[in-house]
Amino acid sequence: MAKLYNTKYYHRDLSWLRFNHRVLQEAADNRNPLYERIKFLAIFSSNLDEFFRVRVSDIRQIKEIEKPFRKKLITKPNKVLKEIKKQVELQQEEFGTIFKEQIIPDLKAENIHLIDHKEFSSTQKEIAKTYFEETLKDKLEISCNPCSNSDTVFIENEALYLAAQLENDTFKLVKIPHDEPRFFTFPKQNGKHYITFIDDILKYCLKQTPQREENITFYSVKKSRDAELYIEDEFSGNVMERIKKSLPKRNTGQATRLLIDNSTPKEFQEILKNVLEVYNADIVMGGTYHNFKDFFDFPNPTSKKLSIEHLPPLPHPVLAHCHSVFKAIDKKDQLVHYPYQNFEPVIKLLEEAADDPQVTTIKMTIYRAASESRLNDAIAKAAKKGKEVVVFIEVKARFDEHNNLKWGKIFEENGAHVIYSFPAIKIHSKILCIERETNGTLKRYSYIATGNFNENTAKVYTDFGIMTANETITEDLNKLFLVLQGKMIIPKPEKLLISPFTLRQTFESLIENEMELAKAGKDAYIIAKMNSLQDKSMIKLLYKASNAGVKIRLLVRGICSLVPGIKGQSENIYITSILDRFLEHGRIYIFGNDGDEKMYIGSADWMKRNLSHRIEVVTPILDQDHHNTIKELIDIQLNDNVKARIIDPDQKNDYIKHGKPAIRAQYETYAYFKNHNKPKQ
Questions:
Q1: Which of 597, 638, 237, 196 is nearest to 421 (CA)?
Q2: 113 carries a ligand binding annotation
Q3: Which of the four, 439, 520, 577, 675, has the lowest number of CB atoms within 10 Å?
Q4: How do residues 376-425 score in pLDDT, each as one tens digit?
């Protein structure tokens, strides 16, 4: 693999591809159940689609910058795009090998046969014809055009097409219906189950048409388009309305990738390139089938348990049994950690707030809302009852704009004050502030989390949340909401770290403190867990801390631009990445502080966008019991030797292969909560 780093910084987009390679490793890991491995193929495919629509389009925009400015860039866009294409094609090849040489044989071993149209039996051919005539035929969109350079054809973003070269210099494009299941299950025969792509039903049946095209071959084609909305001037007019009007542009945006079946003849590739208006740089060679994200719904026609074991979220030892969440918080800060624990306490808090006559005000931020949501229903109910409800909705949360706009309208219709996106900055924090009045006395309750207010993602993303009535924390949070409401300019928090105001500076100060301790010969260390590490200023400071003797242990799930293990630069930095059944999403920052350890959790990664260009909130963990719990959980993750990969200078993604007994962090974490799940008074 080419080294697109200068020994100091690994390119962020190539590092993201290395993260997606870790997803691919899970598909190849036969320690995972068969259908779990199939799911990871789907995740890999879905991730890659988004990468081309977002990151590749961003890099291509750099090419539009005027040359005098573009020359100042450290990494040239053409060089990056060339390396991206190279790495993607290598991964696509590995993907195909895993699918053909591992998944297909393992399915056969379970008497599940994924067959193509050439393998149809006579009975299956008749069934396929019937399904085609009764279900698919009337839904087909077919176009035939002259193969000339002057004629072009529009194909929809991310839609699946079958393309064939015909006689008389014409070609045929057939859009595969998206409103039908991608897979068709034939009746069981001789104890064996047979499944096929509907692509193959179309390939077979289209050859039987009166046009007698028996000898033509259909090849899979898919076009990805730029997902950026390009709001030209966010500082004028209504940002929400501009976004709403821009959303349809995603379906017609510039091509970022044309995925073509790698068996497509060169001559036909040229025809497709011309009529679909793409360049050589846009073409990526794929397999016979595209949109492997459809494998999320791959049927299991057997009665065998081929999926991962169910780990039901555990009830919270306090909040699941208390009569009032507010009274529980009055006694003690409450820590929740889903999906190991149920998300129910967060919903219960808002439902109680909606019904409690003493609650006067609810203020919160929403970044990614669930489509159907009891939590959001509670917010609407509170507003309808006449409480002051202020909701900041980030409608620039990519791919969740429709959902967020939908809920914004519902909240407004019920009387809530909804504030939509600010120009040029995203509100990424996960915060809630509730005000109650008891006998004329105002008391605030806060919830600060690493993850979204979303019941669906809470089932698969690992996140922490803290509920507190601490007066300093709640006042800090109230100040931030005043900023969001336009009633204050700078929040000046005492304990919370808030970007872009105090977060970067505080983290820098904490790192520098560890450096001073190390220079004084004291034990100095930093433990940090995050989704991504990319900010160059932070990386430079970590290098400096490493050289000062600070022991730095990092857990980074995704992008990691820091190059560890380099003598004289980062020899005291060790990084691992855990990828397993749940998506590691929590952010935790721990500083030794000469024995008086400081710990923080919150929404911010160490990326430039989080530290400088978003509203983020990170809270100190003040309750010693919760501090101890999080530290114990981090220790479990630091010792994972089953699903942890080493992030080395080349990001080869080698599994940790030493240590007994085997420690699989996510399962050990579930067991931890199960063992600590006795109700507490």
A1: 237
A2: no
A3: 439
A4: 999 999 999 999 999 999 987 676 788 889 999 999 999 999 999 887 78
Q: Is residue 316 part of a domain?
A: no
| Predicted structure pTM score | 0.91
CA distances from 1 to 4, 118, 157, 499 (A): 9, 38, 31, 36
Work out the mean pLDDT of the chain and round it to a whole number: 90
pLDDT of residue 681: 47
Catalytic residues: 428
In a domain, 309, yes or no: no
**What does the pLDDT average to over 422-450?**
93
- 225 annotated as a binding-site residue: no
Let me know: does 293 contact 42? Beta carbons within 8 Å: yes
Structural domain range at position 636: 499-675
Tokens representing 489 are 């300019």
Count the Cβ atoms, other than its own, within 10 Å of residue 147: 18
Question: By C-alpha distance, which of 481, 473, 498, 450 is closest to 363?
Answer: 481
Q: How far apart are CA 612 and CA 5, in angstroms?
A: 23
Q: Where are the alpha helices (DSSP H) in 374-502?
A: 374-384, 401-413, 471-484
Q: Is 9 helix (H, G, I), strand (E, B) or coil?
A: strand
The answer to whether 432 and 363 have CB atoms below 8 angstroms apart is yes
Q: Say how many domains are in the chain.
A: 3
Residue 368 marked ligand-binding: yes
Q: Which two tokens stand for residue 374?
A: 């009891």
pLDDT at 1: 45
